[in-house]
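Hi V.,

You were right to ask for the full record rather than a summary. Here it is.
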Amino acid sequence: MNSPVKIPYQSFIEIDRNSETAIYLQVANQLINAIQRGFLPFGTKLPGTRLFSEILEVHRNTAVAVYDELSAQGWVESLPNKGTFIIGENQKKPVKVKDFEKNNLQNYPEATGFSFKTSNILDNPFEHSDCEYIFNDGVPDIRLTQIGRHSRFYSSILKRKSNQKMLGHYNHDGSEFFKQHLSHYLNLSRGLPISKNNLLITRSTEMSIYIVSQILLSEGDTVLVGALSYFSVNMIFQKSKVNIISLPIDNEGIKVESVREACKKQRIRMLYLTPHHHYPTTVALSAQRRLELLELANEYGFIILEDDYDYEFHYDKSPILPLASADTNGMVIYIGSFGKSLAPGFRTGFIVAPENLMAEMRKYLGIIDRQGDILMERALGEMIEEGEIHRYLKKSLKVYQERRDYFALLLNEHLNGLIRFQKPSGGLAFWMEWTVPVNLMLLSRNCAQQNLFIPKTLLYQNRDLTAMRIGFGNFNVEEMERSIAILSKNVTDLI
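Predicted structure:
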């Protein structure tokens, strides 16, 4: 048993007098930590409250409160005329004072004491930088979002007493009100003849695809994707241990004949598409090819997973309706995002599918997102009902179209002869193919030194292709001019 005087309590008890946690609880918790880790073994006698208060430089009443807390939690016992002792199972070896000096109880373990499976498939591919100008793959400008107005919708809903009871309930099925209005919105805007029973509300496109892959894909299945495809989705498919086959893309989207040939050679479980604007090349899948793919799906029995990640953004003409709008045999699962033009906290994902599959999906959603966000969904539903979404989208599309046109003008002005591109009919990004040999990784490093960050996820370079996907939606005029000027200068220096 250690003498209470020899134990250097100050070496492992730290008091933060600015913390909102009461001092006596800070001390008690750290003593419990020391007991749990074996630094204060069974039978250790603690100092008297007067001496303990002097050691820690606290009021004696604080020391009394510490011992009362330890006693209430069952860590110590006070024996009349003897003192206060640690209780618990006796340890074989007593702990010496030097053990306190070389161990810091504030440190959390650096590694687990057990083994576990690791995977580099899900390594985070995203990079971050403090550069003033940052290229992305096509995201909206948060500065255009009317955060104050959107927040008032949410605040108003939260203040209603009739809605406050929702806070006490789990609801992974989502807001029936929102699903009703979203199904109507999708019917009018995308030609989807669905009801709320065909909708599953998720947090994001990635969550939607994860749920779909968990239910519909098994190890060894074959999934078809474009020769260039969305890396996050490929990561999900790889984690499902499926075989991924990449098929060629041209200016009308994925080549249907390549899909047919793949079906003749082996059983295909799923075809993943971004038909509105193929990621990353931005080309639209032609209307004729959409019909041909639906016929192939019916003939060979494969699932079409249609990802309409940026359907809301189209400028020159009305967008082609989704494949799901023409599907009469239940072969298409349609996923998308709602409110992408809004502030990030007001966005949500969704899945559209026949009701029998929807029932199974709700089981999975109940496991990974049991809580849901029913109040936010209620706010989004009211924004649809009152026309707020339509008004805001109409206003923001005008800005994004002007930015698209000016970005194309800058590319022609600064990089003419060095790249080829088609001005996208929608979306928030350009696909640029370089016509001169350029080391894109070196270009990215050089640009970063001049305050322009180009993430590696935007770079596509192999023996046959040197290209970049660059978003324009997050830049104003001045930022566009400066970022393209930096890019142009560094390209010129390299070639």
